[in-house]
Amino acid sequence: MPITSGAPAHGNPAHLLPPSWTSVISAWLAEDTPSFDYGGFVVGAAPATARLLAKSPGILAGVPFVDEIFKQLDCKVEWLVKEGELVGQNGKQHVATVTGPTRNLLLGERVALNVIARCSGIATKSDSLLQLLRKAGYKNTLAGTRKTTPGFRLVEKYGMLVGGCDPHRQDLSTMTMLKDNHIWACDNNISTAVLAAKSAGGFAIKVEVECQSLDEANQAIEAGADVVMLDNFTPGDMKAAARKIKEKYGGGVRGPLVEVSGGLTEENVRDYVSDDVDVISSSSIH
């Protein structure tokens, strides 16, 4: 987990969640039971116990969401493993026990399973791709993208963090990314687009530009872009472009960041490993 690994943080990923996040849980429960709970009428409210089982290997993620789901239903969750741990390596593994009224356990069951399965799947995929890159010699950042499920971004970005990946920008307000359509809408003038973005966002908002060539990357950097994304480059062209950018503008904290993206998966991502690449981003992890 990048939040605690090698960093002087006193918290954990759950402490990143915004104050309003519990309202998301309430909306999930309301979506699943907007009117009468007929099944709940059948089973009643006698005290009961349920076991949460991991049936396949993976990284456990989504604990705060499951806790809150059952908290809102007056149930209690006792975890037997910690978030971020590998579970299910030897078949079914008992990872948590939930106690409460029978009706309430069943009200929360499907919502909780959907959330923890999705979040754990993303954490597992993130960890898998990150380990593959580390074995290939890549020492920098692996990130997700903004291609998340509408209404479920908080869970999916959380899963990336637990799996060891950078979640990338949270939304359109946290960083300005000028993609090809933005540039086309500015008469294909990268400098104009970057200057407008810097003017609007001020010193606090970084500007990234999606580039289709080294020439576009140079234009973006010279206009003041903080990050250039080399999008859908071949491995050879990408490595050559990234090297020239670092040679011309420098690396470290003073130079522009180079991000590589576009169709990267476990099958081809090793071909894009380079010391000149600061960020590899892939939607395949989510």
Automatic annotation (TrEMBL):
Subunit structure: Hexamer formed by 3 homodimers.
Residue ranges annotated for the Quinolinate phosphoribosyl transferase N-terminal domain, each copy included: 45-120
Protein name: Nicotinate-nucleotide pyrophosphorylase [carboxylating]
Role, per record: Involved in the catabolism of quinolinic acid (QA).
Catalyzed reaction equations: nicotinate beta-D-ribonucleotide + CO2 + diphosphate = quinolinate + 5-phospho-alpha-D-ribose 1-diphosphate + 2 H(+)
Pfam families membership: QRPTase_C, QRPTase_N
Domain Quinolinate phosphoribosyl transferase C-terminal positions: 122-285
Organism: Aureobasidium pullulans (Black yeast)
A single Gene Ontology CC term: cytoplasm
Family, similarity comment: Belongs to the NadC/ModD family.
GO MF, one annotated term: nicotinate-nucleotide diphosphorylase (carboxylating) activity
Keywords of this entry: Glycosyltransferase, Pyridine nucleotide biosynthesis, Transferase
Pathway the protein acts in: Cofactor biosynthesis; NAD(+) biosynthesis; nicotinate D-ribonucleotide from quinolinate: step 1/1
Domain of life: Eukaryota
InterPro entries tied to this protein: Aldolase_TIM, NadC, NadC/ModD, Nicotinate_pribotase-like_C, Quinolinate_PRibosylTase_N_sf, Quinolinate_PRibosylTrfase_C, Quinolinate_PRibosylTrfase_N
EC nos: 2.4.2.19
GO biological process, one term: NAD+ biosynthetic process
